[in-house]
Amino acid sequence: MADGWLNAAAEAGGAVLLQAGGHWDARNVTRLDQLLRGLAPSNGAAVILDLTQVERLDTAGAWLLYRTRREVRARGGRADYTGLTPAHEAMLEQVEANDQPAEIEPPREPALLAMLGRVGDGTVDVMIEARQQVAFLGLLLVTLAGTLRHPGRLRLVPLVYHMEKVGFNALPIVGLISFLIGVVLAYQGATQLQRFGAEIFVVNLVGVSVLREIAILLTAIVVAGRSGSAFTAEIGSMVVNEEVDAMRTLGLDPMEVLVLPRVLALVITLPLLAFFADMMGLFGGMLMCWGTLDISPGLFLERLQGAVSLWSFWVGIIKAPFFAFLIAMVGCLEGLRVTRSAESVGQQTTRSVVTGIFLVIVVDAMFSVFFAAVGV
User: Fold this and answer.
1) Does residue 235 share a domain with residue 90?
2) In the chain, what is the straight-line distance between the N-terminal and C-terminal CA atoms, in Å?
């Protein structure tokens, strides 16, 4: 008989005798599986698997027999083979030895759906971040309004201390970067304008670009990397050491004690740093024009007065307090978000710098559109 078959009979003592015969191979495995599930007892009775009449046995058929014995034993019954040939016995032992659960790789999500999922998750994260920043902005404005109503609550010593740290101590790096940017702008502008015999317009290029955009933007980026990260690290370290919790226990508001002095210090000092950066950028451009184009400092200043309006200067200065407020707010917010671990301090400090620079560039673009719309 080529097809596999299975019969059930009762044995003495209540055991069930399952007589198998024919070909127990992959061609018959589906039908034999149904037969086994229908004839195998489910009440924990003893089962004897008689394989005397099995003519052919491959791994598929051996797995069905082994699985039946394993399930009967799992239910508390007894299951044994009988009538085994050496080949059949070796096959069943091999199947039993390889009964190891394997980790199945979950089905891969389609690439398009995975990309859309990541975009959706990122959008939700951005919305949550924006909501938290707006909430912190509101809390900061409420604290500032309370301080304006009661000026005595403003802590002058921390304010002056932070003004020195974020303002006076930042003069060397801000001045050096602005000076070098002025040199680079003048050199690159001269290289291009010399082709058209318009070297004198290098003064216009340096004056407008430094005063309106380059000086304040680079100053804000430097301050975000220098002072914004310092705010986050300082406040974050206090959170790790539970100093902020101790402040709240003593009835002190961290917004008044830690956040407001830092924000006001940066708002006051960044316009001064921007003015200093303007002067250093123009000075660098003037020296480069003098050295490469033989434009004397007197001619440079005379040309600068005609090329640059007063509004070109004020456009850069007006942006400074807004940039300062954003940088300080983000730095303090990320510091208060620190959890009680050193790793969190590093993560939030990095996040503070990236977010601060991003917001500065976004607001700068908004100012550029606004000033262009009003004709300034």
Assistant:
1) no
2) 99
CATH number at 90 reads 3.30.750.24
pLDDT tens per residue across span 236-293: 999 998 899 999 999 888 999 999 999 999 999 999 999 999 999 999 999 998 988 8
Least confident of 43-52, 135-144, 313-322: 43-52
pLDDT at position 1? 46
Structure tokens belonging to residue 287:
């020296």
Highest mean pLDDT among 27-36, 102-111, 364-373: 364-373
Number of domains forming the structure of the chain: 2
CA-to-CA distance for 275 and 167, rounded, in angstroms? Answer: 12
| Same-domain check for residues 93 and 135 | no
85 pLDDT tier (thresholds 50, 70, 90): confident
Span 208-213, average pLDDT = 91
Domain that holds residue 93: 5-97
Domain boundary (97, 115, 145) is at: 97
Tell me, yes or no, whether 323 and 218 share the same domain.
Answer: yes
